[in-house]
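Lecture notes, continued. The same structure-token format from the folding unit now serves as the input rather than the output. Read the line below as a description of shape only.
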């Protein structure tokens, strides 16, 4: 399991937690909107974290490409392709002001490298409160298919699906987009999980990953003096709040259009890690 805790540093690995624990400290991109309270979500361990902070190592893409898929050795030309794809994903995530960016490495039927992309973003609708009503209104005239759903705790959210064309004019391909909008009750904040995949099979994997994430969302607004109704006690000092619709908001519904150049062949992994974040950053801890 990977656990993310509040920190101020970024990009440094430590082994101080335990002999079997890898600790990676991260810091969010300074331009990425986020609430000033703690929150957490469960994410699959098979996904690779991309550091989109401006001070991130320029060799990040090279390091990931060298061990893109453990046990699979890519040719030098293929590694260069992976590096270009990763650099494009980082640029797109920065442009989208993403808070957290993950990729799921894969290969197509020809053995060429590919990846799906998952990003988390926050929208602040101040002074309006977050709500389901305005999220649904935002999609009234859009081509995306919208589905209303409820988490296992009874919290409402919106899931959308859309297929677009990507690539050069002489080689157009389908790109599959999934988004979930989760309004946090009693606040002005809505969490948006956006995923892009290159084929229907990996789209099903993305839908599963986003659904699990949505069902795991917890917020701790009291950590910065903001307390919500219907609080569920987790421990002595921890509380979680259900994401019910309260009040009205204006949510800008945008698809994250990170382009993928080939088909990702992936599988669902039942292992999750917990991402617990503060306004400045967190710690990724793999046990």
């Amino acid at each position: 399991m990977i656990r993310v805790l509040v920190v101020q540093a970024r990009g440094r690995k430590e082994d101080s937690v335990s002999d079997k624990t890898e600790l990676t400290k991260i810091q969010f991109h300074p331009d990425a909107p986020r609430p000033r309270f703690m929150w957490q979500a469960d994410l699959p361990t098979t996904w690779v974290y991309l550091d989109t902070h401006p001070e991130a190592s320029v060799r990040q893409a090279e390091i990931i490409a060298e061990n893109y898929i453990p046990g699979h050795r890519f040719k030098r030309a293929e590694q260069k392709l992976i590096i270009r794809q990763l650099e494009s994903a980082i640029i797109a995530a920065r442009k989208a002001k993403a808070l957290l960016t993950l990729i799921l490495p894969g290969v197509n039927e020809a053995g060429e490298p590919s990846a799906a992309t998952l990003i988390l973003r926050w929208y602040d609708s101040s002074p309006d409160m977050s709500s389901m009503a305005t999220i649904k209104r935002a999609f009234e005239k859009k081509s995306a298919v919208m589905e209303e759903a409820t988490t296992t705790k009874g919290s409402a959210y919106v899931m959308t699906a859309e297929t677009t064309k990507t690539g050069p004019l002489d080689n157009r391909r389908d790109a599959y987009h999934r988004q979930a909008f989760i309004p946090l009750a009693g606040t002005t904040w809505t969490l948006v999980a956006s995923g892009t995949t290159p084929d229907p099979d990996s789209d099903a994997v993305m839908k599963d990953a986003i659904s699990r994430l949505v069902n795991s969302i917890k917020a701790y607004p009291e950590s910065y003096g903001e307390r919500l109704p219907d609080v569920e006690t987790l421990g002595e000092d921890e509380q979680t709040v259900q994401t019910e619709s309260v009040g009205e908001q204006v949510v800008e519904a945008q698809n994250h259009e990170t382009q993928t150049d080939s088909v990702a062949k992936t599988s669902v992994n039942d292992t999750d890690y917990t991402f617990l974040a503060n306004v400045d950053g967190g710690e990724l801890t793999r046990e």
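Point for the exam: The radius of gyration is 19 Å.
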